[in-house]
Design brief:
This protein is of the alpha/beta class. It has 2 domains: about 180 residues, HUPs (Rossmann fold); about 100 residues, CBS-domain (Roll). It has 9 helices and 15 strands. Strands 2-1-3-4-9-8-5-6-7 form a 9-stranded mixed beta sheet. The chain has a 3-stranded mixed beta sheet with strand order 10-11-12. The protein has a 3-stranded mixed beta sheet with strand order 13-14-15. β1, α1 and β2 form a beta-alpha-beta unit.
C-alpha cells in the first residue's frame, strides 16, 4: 500500500463520488448533515464531491469528471509548479495501486522556455512514486495533451491555477469532455488543520491543588477548564513555586488556545506547548502538541 494513503475520506452524492472514494479508501464515509462538521468529526483529509462550495477550503477536495474505471490501463498525474500538484501525484499513486495499474507523471508546455519548468515538475513528483513513468508533452490545447497520454488513462490534475495545463483544461471556455477516455479527477489542495493532528484534551480544574496537579501531570503548561470551557492556563513553574494546597485558579494566567478549524501552526510559532484546542464558543475539544509536528 502506498505510504501516502489517505487516512479519512468522505464523499457526497454525485456521479462517480462513491466509486472514487472507494478506490481511495477501503472505508470511506458518506457525508451526513453539515459538511464542515462532518469533515472535523471524521478528521477527513480528503473530500470527494461533485460540487464543492466555492469558498470551502477545510480539507483537500477531489472532483470526478466523466469518471469511468472500466478497462483503465493506467493513471496519469498531470503536474506543474502549482500548489495542487503534490495532491494529484499522491492521489494518482493510491488510485493506481488500488486498480493494479501503473502511474505516469506528466506535464505539458506550450513554449520552449517553459519546457524546463515542466521537466522539473515531473522529476520532482515522479521521484515520490515507486516505478512512475515520466512524460513531457508539447501541447497547445487539451486534445493535443490527451492524445499523447497512454491509452485508457485516468487523468488526475490540479484545480485552475497559474500553470498552462490547468488553465487549458479548466480556464474560461475549456471543455471537460476533452479529458482522458477513462475520465478525469480534479483536485484542490488544502493545508492541514488543527483537527487533523490534535490529541485528547489534557486539562486541570481551577479547584485542583498545586501539589496534586504536579503529581498528575508533567506538561510544562496546562489548560484550565471549568464546565467544559477554557478559563485559563497554568505553568508548571508556577505550580512548583506555590504552596502545595494553593488552588490552580489562583495561579492561572489568561487562556491560550488555537481553534479546531485553524490552519496548522508551525512548531515553535506559539508560546505554549502543548496548547488547548477550542471551538468558536471557547469549549475545549483537544490538545495540540507542537513539538510532535
Amino acid at each position: 500500500m502506498p505510504e501516502r494513503e489517505f487516512k479519512s475520506v468522505l464523499y457526497t452524492r454525485g456521479g462517480g463520488c462513491e466509486e472514487l472514494a472507494g478506490l481511495i479508501s477501503p472505508e470511506p464515509n458518506r457525508v451526513v448533515g453539515d459538511l464542515s462538521e462532518a469533515c472535523i468529526s471524521k478528521r477527513a483529509d480528503l473530500l470527494v464531491t461533485r460540487r464543492p462550495p466555492g469558498d470551502f477550503n477545510l480539507v483537500s477536495v477531489a472532483t470526478p469528471v466523466g469518471f469511468d474505471t472500466a478497462d483503465v490501463t493506467g493513471v496519469v498525474a498531470a503536474v506543474s509548479g502549482g500548489p495542487h500538484s503534490g495532491l494529484a501525484a499522491r492521489l494518482a499513486d493510491v488510485v493506481a495501486h488500488r486498480l493494479g495499474v501503473g502511474v505516469t507523471v506528466a506535464s505539458a508546455f506550450f513554449q520552449d522556455e517553459n519546457k524546463a519548468e515542466a521537466e522539473a515538475a515531473v522529476d520532482r513528483f515522479a521521484e515520490e512514486i515507486s516505478g512512475a513513468q515520466r512524460l513531457i508533452i508539447a501541447a497547445e490545447d487539451p486534445q493535443a495533451f490527451v492524445s499523447q497520454l497512454p491509452a485508457r488513462s485516468l487523468l488526475i490534475l490540479g484545480a485552475p491555477g497559474g500553470s498552462f495545463l490547468s488553465r487549458t483544461f479548466f480556464g474560461p471556455g475549456a471543455r471537460l469532455r476533452a479529458a482522458a477516455a477513462a475520465g478525469a479527477v480534479m483536485v484542490r489542495y488544502a493545508a492541514p488543520r488543527v483537527f487533523h493532528v490534535m490529541e485528547e484534551p489534557v486539562f486541570v480544574s481551577p479547584l485542583h491543588h498545586a501539589l496534586d496537579t504536579l503529581r498528575l501531570h508533567d506538561e510544562p503548561v496546562l489548560a484550565v477548564v471549568e464546565s467544559g470551557s477554557l478559563v485559563g492556563t497554568v505553568r508548571r513553574g508556577s505550580l512548583m513555586a506555590a504552596e502545595p494546597s494553593t488552588p490552580v485558579g489562583d495561579l492561572m494566567e489568561a487562556p491560550h488556545s488555537v481553534r479546531i478549524d485553524q490552519i496548522l501552526p508551525e512548531a515553535g510559532s506559539l508560546d505554549d506547548d502543548p496548547v488547548a484546542v477550542t471551538d468558536e464558543k471557547g469549549r475545549m475539544l483537544g490538545t495540540l502538541r507542537l513539538a510532535s509536528l
